[in-house]
From TrEMBL:
InterPro entries: Fe-S_Maturation_MIP18, FSCA_dom_sf, MIP18-like. Gene3D superfamilies: Fe-S cluster assembly (FSCA). It holds the Pfam family FeS_assembly_P. Residues 11-82 form the MIP18 family-like domain. It comes from the Bacteria. This is FeS assembly SUF system protein.
Length: 106
């Protein structure tokens, strides 16, 4: 059996993350800088470290579940968990140039 290509799987995960949007901002959560890290181990288990725009974010309950479910829907992924952190807190500095452009901040 060949070794799974974690870089390739990482790219697939990022593509899925880019389909998830913060309902208040017309930019996907990846470009917004809400995804801090994506870890994939040899068992194809994925751990995503992410934040929210604020601790009182209206989607605090649903967004992590959506991320988890969409990542688990990738065939190669055996399991996925999302860990929410507010350290460091999200700031607009974390947004990609694309996101800033989209929101008229550039």
């Amino acid at each position: 059996m060949s070794e799974p290509n974690t870089a390739e799987l990482g790219d697939k995960i990022v593509r899925v993350l880019k389909t998830i949007y913060d309902p208040e901002i017309p930019v996907d959560i990846y470009e917004l800088g809400l995804i801090y890290d994506v870890f994939v181990n040899e068992e194809q288990e994925v751990k995503i470290l992410m934040t929210l725009t604020s601790p009182n974010c209206p989607v605090a309950e649903t967004l992590p579940v959506e991320v988890e479910e969409k990542v688990k829907s990738i065939d190669e992924v055996s399991d996925a968990i999302v860990e929410i952190t507010f350290d460091p807190p999200w700031t607009q500095e974390l947004m990609s140039e694309e996101a800033k452009l989209e929101l008229g901040m550039l």
